[in-house]
């Protein structure tokens, strides 16, 4: 039951092979059994079983939609009414959201059963899930390895079959990199495709929510429900949502795939390169035409991102001040003391680092040198992508330079950690859709293949990934857990 | 030394939208604390702003009314600072590209009108209120006001006296109330003002060091605070001191300003474009549409009152200062047909009664139609001026619904019948023989004054109904 695809689960539910309650209970049991992964911050078993019972009733009345009764988990960055929403931070450890995110509402409206909230890097700031106040998540493939971040809990939970699907958010690679490290499929949609209402902001102009699951097909089903205009988010785009599952079967004949040479340089682990070469050959067999392209500004994505994201974060995180909600220090002696201690005690080191960087970058006298310069770079990087995507239909690249690294191996060197994001950041700066698809393993650790499309071309990305998954079985591999 | 003051004003106008600038919560004043603050106003994690189109429309209307350039594109920025009544830790405002570009306002002064340029006007959200009373050593925060749309109108530093500043502020007040984009209620904080004041030796080009005075929230306080600040700065310099750039708070109880913070203590607001909001793009058709929908503005009214209706500059100025008063006057004129008479009564009797009873025009017990009905009777000689005042007082007191009812009930109809008046005159002259003798003995140039006595006696005897002109004429004939 736990290894079924979403379509198979829906079929099993519809034909009465099992009930949503049974399915939900089976996953809840696995979550409890594998709690050592630390993939969840909150498990809402009681509510989940209630939702499952309601789903069973709708199914028996013939009122089910394709996802009714199927369990999922939400990254703990999405507000869930009446449920703790911590964002992986001590400062929100006591915060129970008074409202639900649009993504949460839409998936609930589709009948999905929420099992709880998954672990993440504090305020989604991190590439290893080690900055969480709730401790690191373990990679189900290797307990010594990080699951990636920031959506590490969601990725680990899906990989370990604790849930069939989960939501994630991606500001600089936070869906794709953990998907790659955990051997699952995840898509970051075009900026504006999925509403950000109720998604706690890290860097507003880069943040985008998306699904994480075991296959492109599952992601297509989920994205169809998550995507769409939301009048509560001014940056969400008024444009109709294609029927993603219906697009999966398109043939790849004549498809032009570009391999940006800057993504295949000396940074890239050679064994991973071999995996990608094999994947490229598979796609060629399916009729795609592959050519080398160039994105000369690739390396500049790191400095641009690490100015813009912290700048926005420094402002976005000002609301966590101990006044209205969240952590407040004991016995503040005056207002300044309340601010200083609540924030000093409530935020972890990575969050503080980025607030400081961002505050500095926006300060009088430094704004032009940092923030304005970074915005110029951002425009140039976007143009770089646009030019290339005029030549080819999509880009294929590694998601990460190396497979999952060991826990603790980069925590003492933030710059090393930031360099992990080299292949994913540019996409966020340009607002493009991109996904990570399993493409093999190196020493028992999964390898992710990244597909990058033009704006609103999620359908094509899912189509290519699905066709690839029809002729490969990397996405079907499951880690062995004790 | 001769000193010259230089003053610039920043006027914050609360826009009269139903809901807040970035949320759907109500903007109504005076509700229980924190009952009109939704998750967006509270700055909850994950919330996003959505711009209220009505606020944009009002800002553009203002811009058009002050002849400003309306850029096709403007955008919002975040002004970052920490304060308990600022829920998000930043105020969403505009800086680099505001919604209203440069414009101007002509202000009427005794020595003629003066043009004050407006640097720009921008949209922003209001903060909440910190309540320092009733919390026993703590501070309460009321976020009902948080997110109320504000239009901040920034003048060039081009006013040279407190009087000019007040005239400018009154001009702004009258424009926003004319447009109906604000109730302009200064007591409730709908219109607030900060003044930047500096002094320099007369004739010097460079500006002196300025101080910003906050919290000058009535026309009277603006004048007092600025005058006080000008004196303070001049005294300081003449005593060998130096003005320090700082923010000062006006205390109306002590009539003084005191330092709040100096430039060194000022925040670095770290403005940057708000990533949650798209730039505001306005097409020319939209701007044109709003331009065509603008009501007649104070200046245009003043001009029409003098040029078409023949009113004095003074009357036109008084009548056009508030839209309500101008509309009242226009309505009275429309019905009675005599603009000058209408102007006399609206600026005279009506305004005096309102003052006496401390009422707003909206609360006046006499509607323009009622006043016009009264003036018509004055114009067709049914009553005389004295009776008209009685009728007005009776209308005011609610003793009747129309002037005609009251004239009838009180028997105030003017007596123009010469025979009847002659009889009264004869009586009066007979009873005041001594005065008659004096009159007859007097020089011609003294007689004019003396005849007033007889007129008064006749009017009294006729209970005010005799036509004064007739009385005058007949008296002159009889006294020779």
Automatic annotation (TrEMBL), chain A:
Protein name as annotated: Glutamyl-tRNA(Gln) amidotransferase subunit A
EC class of the enzyme, as a word: ligase
EC number in record: 6.3.5.7
Function, in words: Allows the formation of correctly charged Gln-tRNA(Gln) through the transamidation of misacylated Glu-tRNA(Gln) in organisms which lack glutaminyl-tRNA synthetase. The reaction takes place in the presence of glutamine and ATP through an activated gamma-phospho-Glu-tRNA(Gln).
The keyword ATP-binding appears for this protein: yes
One function term, GO molecular function aspect: glutaminyl-tRNA synthase (glutamine-hydrolyzing) activity
Domain Amidase residues, every copy: 22-462
Record has Protein biosynthesis as a keyword: yes
UniProtKB/TrEMBL annotation, chain B:
Keywords: ATP-binding, Ligase, Nucleotide-binding, Protein biosynthesis, Transferase
Gene3D superfamilies attached to this UniProt entry: 1.10.10.410, GatB domain, N-terminal subdomain
EC number: 6.3.5.-
Stretch forming the signal peptide: none
InterPro entries named among the record's database cross-references: Asn/Gln-tRNA_amidoTrfase_suB/E (IPR017959), Asn/Gln-tRNA_Trfase_suB/E_cat (IPR006075), Asn/Gln_amidotransferase (IPR018027), Asn/Gln_tRNA_amidoTrase-B-like (IPR003789), GatB (IPR004413), GatB_C_1 (IPR042114), GatB_Yqey_C_2 (IPR023168), Gln-tRNA_amidoTrfase_suB_CS (IPR017958)
Domain Asn/Gln amidotransferase: 327-479
Catalysed reactions, as listed in the record: L-glutamyl-tRNA(Gln) + L-glutamine + ATP + H2O = L-glutaminyl-tRNA(Gln) + L-glutamate + ADP + phosphate + H(+); L-aspartyl-tRNA(Asn) + L-glutamine + ATP + H2O = L-asparaginyl-tRNA(Asn) + L-glutamate + ADP + phosphate + 2 H(+)
GO biological process assignments: glutaminyl-tRNAGln biosynthesis via transamidation; translation
Pfam families per UniProt: GatB_N, GatB_Yqey
Gene Ontology MF terms: asparaginyl-tRNA synthase (glutamine-hydrolyzing) activity; ATP binding; glutaminyl-tRNA synthase (glutamine-hydrolyzing) activity; transferase activity
Family affiliation: Belongs to the GatB/GatE family. GatB subfamily.
Quaternary data: Heterotrimer of A, B and C subunits.
Protein name: Aspartyl/glutamyl-tRNA(Asn/Gln) amidotransferase subunit B
Gene: gatB
């Amino acid at each position: 039951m736990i290894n079924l695809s979403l379509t198979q689960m829906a079929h099993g539910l519809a034909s009465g092979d099992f009930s949503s309650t049974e399915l939900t209970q089976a996953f809840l049991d696995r979550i409890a059994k594998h709690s050592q992964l630390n993939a969840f911050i909150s498990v809402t078993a009681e509510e989940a079983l209630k939702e499952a019972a309601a789903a069973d009733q709708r199914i028996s009345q013939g009122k089910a939609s394709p996802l009714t009764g199927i369990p999922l988990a939400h990254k703990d960055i999405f507000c869930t009414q009446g449920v703790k929403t911590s964002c992986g931070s001590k400062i929100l450890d006591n915060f129970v959201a008074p409202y639900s995110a649009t993504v949460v509402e839409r998936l609930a409206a589709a009948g999905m059963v929420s099992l709880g909230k998954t672990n993440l890097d504090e305020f989604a700031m991190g590439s290893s899930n080690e900055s969480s106040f709730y401790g690191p998540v373990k990679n189900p493939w290797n307990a010594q390895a990080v699951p990636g971040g920031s959506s590490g809990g969601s990725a680990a939970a899906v990989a370990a079959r604790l849930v069939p699907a989960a939501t994630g958010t991606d500001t600089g690679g936070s869906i794709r990199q953990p998907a790659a490290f955990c051997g699952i499929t995840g898509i970051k949609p075009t900026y504006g495709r999925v509403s950000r209402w109720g998604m706690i902001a890290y860097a507003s102009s880069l943040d985008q929510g998306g699904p994480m699951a075991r296959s492109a097909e599952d992601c297509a089903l989920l994205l169809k429900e998550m995507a769409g205009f939301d009048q509560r988010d001014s940056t969400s785009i008024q444009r109709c949502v294609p029927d993603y599952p219906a697009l999966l079967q398109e043939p790849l004949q004549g498809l032009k795939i570009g391999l940006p040479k800057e993504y295949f340089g000396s940074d890239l682990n050679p064994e991973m390169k071999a995996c990608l070469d094999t994947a490229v050959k598979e796609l060629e067999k399916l009729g795609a035409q592959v050519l080398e392209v160039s994105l000369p500004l690739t390396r500049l994505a790191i400095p641009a991102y690490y100015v813009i994201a912290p700048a926005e974060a420094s402002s976005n995180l000002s609301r966590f001040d101990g006044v209205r909600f969240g952590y407040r220090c004991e016995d503040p002696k005056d207002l300044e003391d309340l601010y200083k201690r609540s924030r000093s005690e409530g935020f972890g080191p990575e969050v503080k680092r980025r607030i400081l960087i961002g505050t500095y970058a926006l300060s009088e006298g430094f704004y032009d040198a940092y923030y304005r310069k970074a915005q110029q770079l951002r425009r140039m990087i976007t143009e770089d992508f646009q030019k290339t995507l005029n030549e080819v239909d999509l880009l294929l690249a590694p998601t990460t330079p190396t497979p999952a690294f060991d826990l603790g191996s980069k925590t003492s060197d933030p710059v090393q950690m930031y360099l992990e994001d080299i292949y994913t950041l540019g996409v966020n700066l340009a607002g493009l859709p991109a996904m990570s698809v399993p493409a093999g393993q190196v020493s028992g650790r999964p390898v992710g293949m990244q597909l990058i499309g033009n704006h609103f071309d999620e359908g094509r990305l899912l189509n290519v990934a699905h066709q690839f998954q029809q002729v490969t079985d990397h996405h079907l591999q499951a880690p062995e857990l004790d | 030394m001769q000193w010259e003051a230089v003053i610039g004003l920043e006027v914050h106008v609360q826009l009269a939208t139903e809901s807040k600038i970035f949320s759907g919560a109500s903007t109504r004043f005076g509700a229980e604390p924190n009952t009109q603050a939704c998750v967006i106003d509270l700055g909850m994690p994950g919330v996003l702003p959505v711009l209220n189109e009505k606020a944009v429309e009002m800002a553009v209307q203002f811009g058009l009314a002050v002849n400003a350039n309306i850029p096709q594109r403007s955008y919002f920025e975040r002004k970052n600072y920490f304060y308990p009544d600022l829920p998000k830790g930043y105020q969403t405002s505009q800086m680099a590209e505001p919604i209203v570009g440069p414009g101007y306002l002509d202000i009427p002064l005794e020595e003629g009108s003066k043009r004050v340029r407006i640097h720009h006007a921008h949209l922003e959200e209001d903060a909440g209120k910190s309540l320092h009373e009733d919390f026993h050593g703590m501070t309460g925060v009321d976020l009902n006001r948080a997110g109320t749309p504000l239009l901040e109108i920034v003048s060039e530093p081009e006013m040279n006296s407190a009087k000019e500043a007040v005239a400018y502020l009154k001009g702004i007040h009258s424009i926003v109330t004319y447009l109906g984009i604000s109730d302009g209620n200064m007591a409730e904080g709908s219109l607030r003002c900060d003044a930047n004041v500096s002094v320099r030796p007369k004739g010097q080009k460079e500006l002196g060091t300025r101080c910003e005075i906050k919290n000058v929230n009535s026309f009277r306080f603006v004048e007092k605070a600025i005058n006080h600040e000008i004196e303070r700065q001049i005294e300081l310099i003449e005593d060998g001191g130096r003005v320090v750039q700082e923010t000062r708070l006006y205390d109306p109880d002590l009539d003084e300003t005191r330092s709040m913070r100096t430039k060194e203590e000022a925040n670095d607001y770290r403005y940057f474009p708000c990533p949650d909001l798209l730039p505001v793009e306005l097409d020319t058709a939209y701007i044109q549409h709003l331009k065509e929908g603008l009501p007649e503005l104070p200046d245009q009214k003043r001009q029409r009152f003098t040029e078409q209706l023949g009113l004095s500059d003074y009357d036109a100025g008084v009548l056009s200062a508030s839209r309500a008063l101008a509309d009242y006057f226009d309505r009275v004129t429309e019905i009675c047909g005599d603009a000058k008479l209408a102007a006399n009564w609206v600026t005279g009797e009506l305004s005096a009664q309102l003052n006496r009873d401390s009422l707003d025009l909206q609360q006046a017990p006499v509607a323009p139609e009622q006043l016009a009905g009264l003036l018509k009777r004055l114009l067709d000689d049914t009553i005389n001026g004295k009776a008209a005042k009685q009728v007005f007082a009776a209308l005011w007191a609610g003793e009747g619904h129309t002037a005609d009812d009251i004239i009838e009930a009180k028997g105030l109809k003017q007596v123009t019948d010469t025979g009847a008046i002659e009889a009264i005159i004869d009586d009066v002259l007979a009873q005041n023989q001594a005065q008659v003798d004096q009159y007859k003995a007097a020089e011609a140039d003294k007689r004019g004054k003396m005849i007033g006595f007889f007129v008064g006696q006749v009017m009294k005897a006729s209970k005010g109904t005799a036509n004064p002109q007739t009385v005058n004429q007949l008296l002159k004939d009889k006294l020779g």
